[in-house]
């Protein structure tokens, strides 16, 4: 009976060991799988971050390149679409610039002209690439002369994302102007000009900020500099300095006659 009991205990011990081993195996398998998954996930996440950084850098380079390409562009709106070739369109733009805008512009000032978009019932705008920034600035200064016609107007050429930013900034621009501030949009930034301070008010503020002693000294210096100092005649000084001394010796008889 004792032998059977010992055999049963031994079997029970082996069973417990096997059960423990199975349990450890069950726990180790998902842990190892999870560890492998975590390691692979970290690698993938690192690669994704690297790709995002490269993509962002490339996007910034493309934006800079696109800004350079559009830098000398102007878009003309409202120009009748009656041309049948490139040179007719070019001459039409030259005529508009010279006659309507009163700006001297020759064929050498224009690098490229073209209608934008697909042809339709609506008049398409014309994109004009100028050869110099100076000519573009000159045209922008005279754009009011073109807009006063009521038919034509021009705009700068911006990328789509910049146009979207400018639309949002327009709302803030109107608010600033309603408050009496001078502001404008430059590319994709809102510029608010500082308020000018009256020169007399600024002078009074500076005087009040000084100590009484300093203000008195400044006032005295101002009075002294405002007066015209008397200038001595240089010629008079010279004559006094070089005045001849009377060295004549009078005789006694002459002195007596003088006394009489």
UniProtKB/TrEMBL annotation:
Keywords: Coiled coil
Segments of this protein annotated with the region Disordered: 209-229
Coiled-coil stretches noted in the UniProt entry, renumbered to this chain: 1-28
Protein name as annotated: Endonuclease-reverse transcriptase
């Amino acid at each position: 009976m004792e032998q059977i009991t010992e055999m049963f205990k031994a079997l029970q011990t082996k069973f417990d060991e096997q059960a423990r081993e199975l349990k450890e195996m069950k726990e180790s398998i998902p842990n190892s799988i999870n560890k492998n998954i975590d390691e692979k996930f970290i690698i993938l996440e690192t690669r994704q971050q690297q790709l995002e950084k490269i993509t962002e850098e490339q996007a910034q380079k493309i934006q800079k390149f696109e800004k350079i390409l559009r830098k000398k562009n102007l878009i003309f709106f409202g120009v009748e679409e009656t041309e049948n070739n490139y040179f007719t369109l070019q001459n039409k733009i030259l005529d508009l610039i010279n006659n309507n805008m009163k700006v001297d512009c020759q064929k050498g000032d224009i690098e490229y002209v073209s209608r934008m978009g697909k042809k339709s019932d609506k008049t398409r705008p014309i994109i004009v690439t100028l050869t110099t920034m100076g000519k573009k600035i000159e045209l922008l200064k005279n754009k009011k002369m073109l807009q006063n016609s009521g038919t034509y107007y021009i705009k700068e050429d911006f990328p789509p994302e910049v146009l979207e930013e400018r639309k949002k900034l327009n709302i803030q621009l109107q608010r600033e102007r309603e408050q009496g501030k001078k502001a404008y949009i430059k590319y994709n930034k809102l510029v608010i000009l500082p308020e000018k301070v009256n020169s007399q008010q600024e002078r009074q503020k500076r005087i009040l900020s000084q100590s009484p002693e300093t203000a008195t000294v400044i006032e005295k210096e101002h009075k002294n500099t405002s007066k015209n100092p008397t200038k001595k005649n240089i010629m008079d000084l010279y004559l006094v300095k070089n005045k001849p001394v009377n060295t004549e010796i009078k005789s006694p008889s002459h002195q007596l006659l003088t006394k009489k």
